[in-house]
Every structure is written in C-alpha cells, then in structure tokens.
Amino acid sequence: SMASTGFSLTFLGLPGVLFPRFCSCAPLIAPGRAPTQLEAETMRGLRALVVLCVALCASAASSVRKIKSNRDMEKALELSKRSGKFLVVDFYTDACGPCRMIAPAYKALAEEMRDAAIFAKVDTRYNGETASRYQIRSTPTFMFFVDGKAQPSFQFSGAGEQQLRHYAQLAQKEAQKVFVELSRDLLGRFYAKYDPEKSEEAVDKVFEKCAARAKSDKCEGSTAAELAKKLADKYGKGPRPEKKVPGQASKEESRAGPREGNGSKGSSRGSSRRNSAPKTAEPATGMTLADFSAEALRGELEKRGFLVMTEGEASALMTGGGGEDARASGIEGDDFDEEDDEDDEDEEMELPDEWLPPATLDHSEKVVIVGAGPAGLSAAVYAARAGLEPLVIAPPVGGQLQGKGVNVENYPGVLSQTGPELVADMQKHADLYGAKFLYGLVDDVDFDEHPFTISARNHTIRAQAVILSTGADAKWLNVAGEEQFRGGGVSSCATCDGYLFRNKPAVVIGGGDAAMEDALVLARTSSSVTILHRRDQFRASKILADRVLEHPKINIRWNTTVKAFDGEAPCNAPVVEETVRPVEPGDASCLKKVLVQSIHSGEEDVLQAAAAFVAIGHKPNTHIVKGELEVDAAGYVVTRPGTTATSVPGVFAAGDVADKLYRQAITSAGSGAQAALDAERWLSERGLGISDITEPAPAIRDEL
Prior knowledge:
This protein is of the alpha/beta class. It is 32% helix and 18% strand. Strands 12, 13, 14, 15, 16, 17 and 28 form a 7-stranded mixed β-sheet that branches.
C-alpha cells in the first residue's frame, strides 16, 4: 500500500501475479503524527520504487497457469486479447501417460514463448465445464486462441512436441497479424483518398460496426484486419492497421490526447478497454513526485500503461482473498493459479537430467536400451550397477503402466501405487546408479555392422550392445466407424479419456485384465458401463473378474462382437468466431451408438453410448527393427530359448516386445534384468568396453 495516496501499482500486462508482501510500502510513521519533511521525501521515494519492485515480482511468475473454471477461461481469453499474446490451453489428466510425456516440453515451450503467448492447463478431472464447453474428447488436447477466438485448424490431440511447436509458431504469426487497430481518423483519411463521396456519417457507421463486432469501443483485432482486407479487395488498396502496444493508447489517441468524459476512478483487470484518466498537464522540467497530487499521479501512471488498484484491491490480491474491492474489479487472488501448486506435485514427474551424445562418432556406448517401461528401466538398473553406464532412449514417460489409473496390485512390494507412480520410481532408481537418459523416439537402427548405429532426435549413437524393450501398443477392432470416431468417443485409454464422459453411458470391449481395469475406472464416473465380450467367460484374473461381476453399475453382454460405431460426423465443435458457447446435454462426444451382434444367433442390436474403450490386447512395437531382427508371425521378436538374445549377436529383447504369453509388469521387469545380465556377459566374453570400467559407478561408490 502507498501510505498517503492509498493505492498500489501493477503492470497492466501481468494480471494474476501474486506479489510477495515485500512489494508493499508499509507506513513508516505512527498514526496521528504528521510526517517530517525527511519522512515525506522517504515515502515519495518508496512509492516510486514500487514500479521496480512490481517488475521484479512479475518476472518470477509461473509460465503456465491453471484454469479451474469457465470464468478463469474468460479471463485468459480477455488477457490474450488485451495483451496481443495468443493463448494455448492443454487439456490433460494426471493419469494420462501421453499427458505426462508432453508436460515437460509444454512447460519448456511456455518459458521460451512467454513474451508472445499465454500458456494454460485444464485438468479435465476437476474442470469438466471448460472441457465440455470446447467438447474435448481425448487427452492431451491442445487448443490455440488468437484475439480471444479458437483456431480449430491448429487444434490437435497427442503428445507430439514438434506438432506443438509448429502450431505455436503459426499461432504467433496469426497473433501478430491481428493485434492491430484501425482508428477513426485513419479510416476517415483512407475514404477521403479512395472514396471521397463517402460521407462522415457513413464512415462513422463503418467504424462503429467494426467496433461492435470487436466488442470494443475501437475497431481492433481480427475484425480490424478483416475490414482492412475487405477494403483492399474493394479499392485495390486498403488502410494499413496500426500495431497496438499492450496497455497503451493508439497513435491517434496519443496525438489527440485523452477524450473528455472518459475519466475513471478505478480500473478493472478483467476489462479489455482502458478509460483515459482526467487530462493532466504535462510535468514541467525539474518537477518531482512531491509536485503531483494523488489523482494526477494516478492519471499519469494509467496513461503510461500501468494498472492502478485501491489499497483494498491490492491487499485482496496479495493475500489471495476475494473481498468486495477485489470482486468489484474482477480481481480474485485464487484465479489463474500457478502450475506448481502443492496439489499438483504428481502432474509432472521430476525427470532425470537428459544426456546428449557427443558430436563425434568415435565414441560408442557400452549398452543402449531402447524403451523405458518396466523392462527397459529394470535393465537400466542392472546394467548401471554392473558399471556399463547404460543409455536409455525413450520418451520422458513410457510403458503400458502409464495407462493404469487403478493401483498396481500384483507387483511384489508395491501396495498402493498407480502405474505412473511405479514408473517414476523405476526411473529414479535407474538414475541413482548412473543410467543416462535421452528423451525421444528412436527413428532407425542399423544392426548390420558393429558397433551398432541408432538414430534418435537427429543424433547418431553407436552402441556395443543394444537391449530392445519397446513394448506393445493397443490393438484395434478394425470395424466401420472406429477410425472415424477415434478421439471422438472411441479410445483405448479409459484412465486418459474416461472422465470426459462422466454421467454418460460407456462401453468396454474385451475380456482380459485390461478390460476389467477399464470398466472399474469408468464405473467411478460413467452413468453405466457395458462390457462386450466375444466369449462366455472372462480371461481376466479372478479377483478383477469378481469385482466387475459384482459391481452394480457394470453390465455384461457375453458372446457379443462389435460390428460398427456410429454417431455425428463431423462433431459439433465451436466455430472460429465463438468464444462462448452454451453446452447442450450430451454434446461432448460425437459417438452416439455401438452396433453389436450376437455370435450365436447373429441378431444385431444397438447400444446407446457416449464412449467406447477398446481393450482387446496389444501388438508389439517392432517396426523400427523390421528387416533387422527375426520376428514371428504375430510380430514379436524371436529370442533364443532360455536367453534374451535375438537373431543378431549383441542385440537383446525384453518385455512385451518379445513376450506374447505373460505380458505382465513383473515379468517384463524380470526379463529386463535378464537382458542386462546377458548383455554384460556378452560384452565381457568379447572384451568390449571393459577397459573403461575401472571403478564402480559414482552412485555405487557413494552407497558403499
């Protein structure tokens, strides 16, 4: 608070920043006592320092914000329009593996582009209203907004970092085009030159229509850009809109000075317009802060782009409260929360530091592990403890365990962890003993010559031995409508997307453990769950099958197959011009029904469903080794009986990429340990890489 003037300052372009208490200037004199001249001068100096203090505090603000309601979303859109920055929103859930995988890249991009964009996140589990408003059907989904309007052509789902960067760059270019305005004076001069018969009243109408469409008192934003383009099409040349400066008046307004009657006693953070302060005389040379009245100082600061708050507003903002002063100005301390809240600790795992390969090809790694599920991370622990300094190449978060929203109950020693939590602990364990990590996908391998060559993220890595642990991906039914509605109600990850269809009927296809787990997850939020299974009994473990059979919200259709998926195409999605759209019941999914058929009678039936989750097994990820290693008819890597050795000496396979029988997290971890032991033995027998192993790894020395 500023003791004598009674208000505080914050930058116009940085709403939502919670300033530490040291940013306020507390009174330095006792109540009731008149300040001395020295004290008065000191207070004036402290007030001047508030601007610098605010700037320093603002610089520490989080680069990614949380949107917890539609009201928060409106504020984000308004801030985007006012600041000229485009808005990116990540719709995610903490249980979604791809969401966790892309989270570090999203945060890094937010830091890189903080001067050009506003980055925000919506947890669809807790903010269903915003997810429903934009009809989000899968996670992660990224939406881009320019000038407060959605850009459907930029929207995408999935964990593609290159896609994210590409569309962010396009959105930035689009934002630069539309953060402009056409002043009435500029429009008048244009018509005077190219259409002199146009009356002043007609020009006024054009300007007012543009301002109305822009929902402002100015012709600005994309509306101004569109008007300029239309005029160029009509007259062969159009007016060039002026670039706006956040928080500052336009060039024409600056020339004309403040308009009469537009003075304002207060200012709102949520407002996109800035009323001019009462006209004040320009300060004469040599004047100090002491020569300004409170109102004159307020007016001068507002004219220079600062937002001036009352003492009550500043107090509410700094304490996180929502008092009357704060509510009157649309300022609430709990809006637009910073990403690193305590309750979001699990949202982004703390990943081990990334290792980057040396530029020279003379160097070769002893062991490279491709994949970071239970098999790959177990192999990393064993190889690291053997002093092989393994390099793990995989996305930041990997493995089928990432899709498990229920607790892992069949892994010894693990009593109450979810799949993502277990994988996070495995990564920490491998990092502890010296494993290195390169985050990304492997693009190509060459096992024809030794050392082997692996290409990943534009890097070429040579390896003495390779452990392949790339796991398996979900199988699909390959029936009519499946591809069309994938991402629009048809999914393979109930923990990722199930919550988006809360209070709606859902279908699960399958009869194994994965199907049982999906059904139990969906039963928490869906109005009903129907399991479709082609046999007359489940293949799942008894404990999971019994839970499903006893659950009151889960129905089962035995001896039934899916013939087709049907619904709306295209889905009802917000159009470009929409920023607010009322949500209609049931419009959050394009899938509406599932056509099923009885195996015995051939009779067909239609089930009403908002979502369908396919859980019929997995296919091995062996596409990168096609033509390099021997695989069986189902695509699994063939290993020598009793070992993890493949058809190429020095290359080993572990986990679901080679296991078509057990496919459990614990068996994958066991085979990963076997692969590391096999690789260590193979290297030792040939004397490869042993000369470099003279001491235990640093982490092991510390432990000893």
